[in-house]
Amino acid sequence: MKDTTARMPAVRPRLGRNVVALAAVSFLTDASSEMIYPLLPLFLTGVLGAGATALGAIEGAAESTAAFLKLGSGWWSDRLRRRKPLVVLGYALATALRPLVGLARAPAQVLAIRLGDRVGKGIRTSPRDALIADSIPPEVRGRAFGFQRAGDHAGAVVGPLVAFALLSWTGMPLREVFLWAAVPGVLSVLLLVVAVRETPRAPVDRSPAAPAAADFRVPLPRRFWAVLAVVLLFALGNSSDAFLLLRAAQLGVAAPLIPVLWALLHAVKALASTPGGALSDRLGRKPLLVAGWGLYALVYLGLGAARAEWQVWALFAAYGVHFGLTEGVEKALVADLVPAVRRGTAFGWYNLTVGLGALPAALLFGFVWDRAGAPAAFGLGAALALAAAAGIAAVAPRRVVPVRPL
Questions:
Q1: Neighbours of 49 (CB within 10 A)
Q2: Are 214 and 341 within 8 A, CB to CB?
Q3: Which residue has the higher pLDDT, 388 or 170?
Q4: Which domains does the chain possess?
């Protein structure tokens, strides 16, 4: 009898309980967050009287605050070898503070609440990403991170649509909509506590980046730092999405339709994230990142040149594809490049790098918008994205993840 096992296709590893549960937690959390976020620019500028520069300062400061905490929480989760307590603490803190935007009476109060919300995000993000990487084999990293991002973006579809329904069908004021955002947030924390399991010891990592003996003192590779430098360059041109919503309103998208536009963006993100991550498992991370950042540049140029409302809807959809090509892929690349014992720290540095660019990017974008107009601001963002695409093509490895046997 002939041996046919060599011709049998290998079974693709499953994503597992933790990845699925954390994607569901992200879904509920973003449903809560996105009941607020797409309406925040209108709330700040229309209700509280803030300008574009103030909007940029609030969003940039909030994201930068989160970034510094992401480094510390990732490092601490490596030392503890326990990720879940920090993940639970971060989600619970953000859930408690986020809806308080509905009680704010001044831009400074919104800033304080956003800072508290982002503190929670800073505590949870790096340990959560490391927990995902600990819970899966390396050959499905891209798909796992893409799936988590898909859950996140699916929640960001539901949240704005709920806000739209409450605003349009019930006539509920903005402030009350913000307070109702507490409901899915509480559900997310309960699901996290019940469904996610601790993974105290990372599985054996057979990728080329894995050291022969796991040691916390193992340095992070030089290529990892080179990739982070390029990520920082892109981050400097990646201003807050609040400016995209402000541009949409400027081009004629009515206030009740802003949440629907935001939902469209995240629907495309959700549909593109898992295929984008899985494609990077097959083709490598570099081609996806170059294509995704190039698409970002085209979208920004389009938003700067747009003159009609319908163009906004098309460009937001294209913007969603960019996220599918890059978000999960960036995180998978981080996991590819570092030893398992340093994953929390590596994700902390990655998230810090992204956050370090948030405040100067938002301030610069808002300043250029106020002084030279929206087209000039979007043109600057496009130029930095193209420079980053060239940089990642030069420094990222062609392939790190082992090829799955056929």
A1: 10
A2: yes
A3: 388
A4: 15-200+220-395 (1.20.1250.20)
Tokens in use for 121?
A: 């995000």
Q: Could you tell me if residue 150 is left (phi over 0), alpha (psi between -120 and 50 degrees) or otherwise beta? A: alpha
Apex CA 44: angle with CA 43 and CA 49, to 5°? Answer: 115
Rounded to an integer, what distance in angstroms lies between the CA atom of residue 99 and that of residue 166? 15
User: Tokens 């084999």 — which residue?
Assistant: 137
pTM of the model: 0.73
- Stretch 120-125: mean pLDDT, rounded? 90
**259 neighbors 295 (Cβ within 8 angstroms):** no
Given a contact cutoff of 8 angstroms between Cβ atoms, the answer to whether 388 and 238 are in contact is: no
**Average pLDDT of the residues in 254-267:** 82
| pLDDT confidence tier of residue 231, bands split at 50, 70 and 90 | very high
Establish how many alpha carbons lie within 13 A of residue 360's alpha carbon, considering only the half-sphere containing its beta carbon. 11
Query: Nearest-5° angle of CA 106, CA 111, CA 115?
Result: 150
Q: Looking at residue 335, what is its pLDDT?
A: 87
Residue 175 region by backbone torsions, left for phi larger than 0, else alpha for psi between -120 and 50, else beta: alpha
Q: Token pair of 386, please?
A: 């193209």
What does each C-alpha distance from 239 to 358, 364, 393 come to in angstroms? Answer: 6, 8, 22
Cβ pair 383, 237 in contact under 8 A = yes
* Residue 355 and residue 68 in contact, taking contact as beta carbons nearer than 8 Å: yes
- HEC assignment per residue over the chain: CCCCHHHCCCCCCCCHHHHHHHHHHHHHHHHHHCCCHHHHHHHHHHHCCCCHHHHHHHHHHHHHHHHHHHHHHHHHHHHHCCCHHHHHHHHHHHHHHHHHHHHCCCHHHHHHHHHHHHHHHHHHHHHHHHHHHHCCCHHHHHHHHHHHHHHHHHHHHHHHHHHHHHHHHCCCCHHHHHHHCHHHHHHHHHHHHHHCCCCCCCCCCCCCCCCCCCCCCCCCCHHHHHHHHHHHHHHHHCCCCHHHHHHHHHCCCCHHHHHHHHHHHHHHHHHHHHHHHHHHHHHCHHHHHHHHHHHHHHHHHHHHHCCCHHHHHHHHHHHHHHHHHHHHHHHHHHHHHCCHHHHHHHHHHHHHHHHHHHHHHHHHHHHHHHHHCHHHHHHHHHHHHHHHHHHHHHHCCCCCCCCCCC
Residue pair 403/293 in contact (Cβ under 8 Å)? The answer is: no
Tokens of 50: 């803030």
